[in-house]
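Hi, here's the filled form for the chain we discussed.

Project: internal
Contact: R.S.
Residues: 349
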Amino acid sequence: MGASRTIYKRPGKLRRPRFRNPGASRLAVDHASLLVDTVCRLAGSENLLSAESNRLRHAILNQDTPQLFEHLLKAFSLQGISDHAARTYTHDHGSPAWLDLQQATSQPPTCSKLRSYWSFHGCGYRKDSRTCAQPKITSYCSLPRHDLRNGRLNQTTYSLFLFIRDVADSNLVKWIDHALDQASLSGKAKHRAVRMRSALIEPLRNVFGVSDKLLNMALADILMAAPPTKPIWIEAGSGMIAIDTLVHNFLLRTGIQRRLGAKHVFGPACYATGGCADIIARIAPQIDASQYNPDYPRTFPRFVQHAIWRWCAQLELGVCNGNNIDDRFRCVNKSCPLFHSCERVALHD
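And the returned structure, exactly as it came back:
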């Protein structure tokens, strides 16, 4: 999530929300929309589309699976450490390419777990101790030979490669096309966007070591880079919402979770029905993202999520986070534009 210029715009009139949330009053929904609309006006990015969009668009047009694999792998490496530290390690030590893994798996593997995506479960490789589920053959295995930051990333790399090779038949573009086409036609129109996102997220969620947050971030970049000839890619990508602790805590501190009857702890519940992602998806139709960039779709949940993240992230606007707020108490930052509308919930009693 790169930095971009901050936008300051005078709040305008919001369209009244039309979505429904059992147990939540219209007043609660209006309140959530107004708070988030203000954040979008102050922290919304005009340049949210990936800086790699042109490269990704060419990869999509050319059905260049190795290039898309590389993009996904870079995104999946950004976990458990700062983005800068992760990128520095990759720069210094390199990252396996699609061809490297093709060559490594071209002959029958010594380890039975590398035979297919479905047999890979339970590899268990650990870089620090050089052990795995079959330690007697570790020295003959290709997986540990890649000098990645930790053993989990080695497993993620092979799991992703095997998924694309075996499940997507080595053509990620065709697999996405098929998944989105099937999902778009399989039910009611109003649930179409949710079905399309799930058609990609659900199977990829079984790739070792990836979270919903990482999947949403990585897939959004690819899908939003699609050419105009693939409108359902753009439709699905615009709704890819990445929930981290900053976004979750914002929805909790402001009282939005409580008012909507959706209070929960950070984790898988953020992507469950009524969780953080659902809240943002329900608020997004009330915020016209095309006013920030005419290339944006009018309803753009990822834009809304990213604006909240920028509002909170220390290296962005850095307004609403644990560095500035003592979470044992209510926020006392009276200079915050949301101060008089925010419930300023203390995260820790």
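Let me know if anything looks off before we file it.
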